[in-house]
Design brief:
alpha+beta, Arc Repressor Mutant, subunit A, 3 domains, 5-stranded antiparallel β-sheet, SH3 type barrels, 41% helix, two-stranded antiparallel ribbon
């Protein structure tokens, strides 16, 4: 179980796009450098390829998107907590557990509402993941976009936000070629390529 937990943590660390040395990863996971190398091999056997950067300033870096299932509380977990309350004699502890169950219940409802609109289309999910990563690190995006009037075109955008509108995902962006803000429908983004060039959101001249 500890190995699985460490593997998930290692993926989460590398998903940030930052390069980690084997020593850093070992210290974060509290395992030996040899074990980190074994973890890398195990991930690659599972189809998750970790790139190795050699040299004195080298390390591991993850260049692919990996979507891990989120571990959350369920209604069954709630029932276990509620039943445990009856066995707690200390009044202050009972009150703390009751407050905790209320918070967890609120989170369960929030997760249910948030996940009411999932992306089922594989192509749209790839686009969504690319935009999410670009948003996180302020990378520019080159997209192939389909417009009902003009057909397909290549555009360079600076993604500023993802949001749901009328049960569809949209990306609020600055469109470089038009020097203007636009809302792009994810279903019409046919391809999305993360560029190496970054942008500063604070310097964008937002027009309304």
């Amino acid at each position: 179980m500890a190995k699985l937990s460490n593997l998930i943590t290692m993926i989460e660390l590398l998903k940030t796009g930052r390069k980690y040395s084997i020593k850093e990863l070992g210290e974060r996971l509290e395992v030996s450098e040899r074990t980190i190398r074994e973890y890398k091999l195990f991930l690659e056997e599972a189809g998750i390829y970790v790139d190795t950067i050699r040299g004195p300033y080298g390390g591991y870096i993850l260049r692919q998107e990996v979507n891990l299932p989120r571990i959350t509380f369920t209604e069954s977990d709630m029932e276990v907590l509620k039943k445990s309350i009856t066995f707690i004699k200390n009044e202050e502890t009972r009150e703390n557990i009751i407050n905790l169950t209320n918070k967890i219940n609120a989170n369960i409802l929030s997760e249910e509402n948030k996940n009411s609109k999932l992306i089922a289309n594989d192509k749209e999910l790839i686009v969504y993941n690319a935009i999410s990563k670009a948003l996180k690190h302020n990378f520019k995006l080159k997209i192939k976009y389909y417009n009902l009037k003009h057909g397909e075109s290549i555009r360079t955008i600076y993604p500023l936000g993802l949001y749901l509108f009328q049960d569809d995902w949209w990306c609020s962006s600055y469109w470089e070629e038009k020097d203007d803000m636009r809302q792009f429908h994810l279903k019409r983004i046919l391809e999305a390529e993360i560029l190496e060039e970054k942008f500063d959101p604070k310097k964008i001249n937002v027009k309304f």
